[in-house]
């Protein structure tokens, strides 16, 4: 299994910022493509960002493009999601997943606990 522990969520007012962290359990994230996903109440879990394993190529869903930035610190074995200009519609539980061959479509194994982000208007 490729599981993570996500952290950094919290409550913030619209327009604010948060930085989420994603730490793998028992493996090195540097060899994998890492994706951030989120699931809002009553909605499906969707991937919102991805970073590749070698060149660090990034991609974003249209809903977060220009506001969120994914990055990785291989020395700390951590992947981050910097979230700026937060909107109430960003309220969700945020998760990470990894894939050796491309941007993940879901977890290899089970999802981690996720981290709750709540944005108030």
Structure overview:
This protein has 121 residues and is an all-beta fold. Helices cover 0% and strands 48% of the residues. The chain contains no helices and ten strands. The strands form two sheets. A six-stranded mixed beta sheet has the order 2-10-9-4-5-6, with no helix packed on it. The chain starts with a strand and ends with a strand.
Task: Fill in the keyword field for this structure.
single chain, 121 residues, mainly beta, six-stranded mixed sheet, 0% helix, 48% strand
Q: H/E series, N to C?
A: EEEEEEEEEE
The profile of the biggest β sheet is: 6 strands, mixed
Mean pLDDT: 96
Q: Count the helices. How many?
A: 0
User: What ranges have pLDDT less than 50 throughout 5 or more consecutive residues?
Assistant: none
The secondary structure category is mainly beta
Number of strands: 10
Envelope shape: globular
> What is the strand arrangement across the widest sheet?
2-10-9-4-5-6
Cα-to-Cα separation, first versus last residue: 38 Å
Portion of residues within helices? under 10%
Strand content bin: over 45%
The value of Rg in angstroms is: 13 Å
Structure summary:
With 121 residues, the protein is an all-beta fold. Helices cover 0% and strands 48% of the residues. It is built from no helices and 10 strands.
List the helices and strands and how they pair.
Elements: E1 4-7, E2 10-13, E3 18-24, E4 33-39, E5 45-51, E6 58-60, E7 68-73, E8 78-83, E9 92-99, E10 115-120
Parallel strand pairs: 2-10
Antiparallel strand pairs: 1-3, 3-8, 4-5, 4-9, 5-6, 7-8, 9-10
């Amino acid at each position: 299994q490729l599981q993570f522990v996500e952290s950094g969520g919290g409550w913030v007012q619209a327009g604010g910022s948060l930085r989420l962290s994603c730490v793998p359990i028992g493996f090195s994230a540097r060899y994998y493509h890492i994706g951030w996903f989120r699931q809002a109440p009553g909605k499906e879990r969707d991937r919102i960002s991805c970073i590749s394993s070698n060149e660090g190529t990034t991609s974003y869903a249209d809903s977060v493009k220009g506001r969120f930035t994914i990055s990785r610190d291989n020395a700390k074995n951590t992947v981050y999601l910097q979230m700026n200009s937060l909107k109430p519609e960003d309220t969700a539980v945020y998760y990470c997943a990894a894939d050796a061959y491309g941007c993940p479509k879901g977890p290899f194994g089970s999802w981690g606990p996720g981290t709750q982000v709540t944005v108030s208007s």
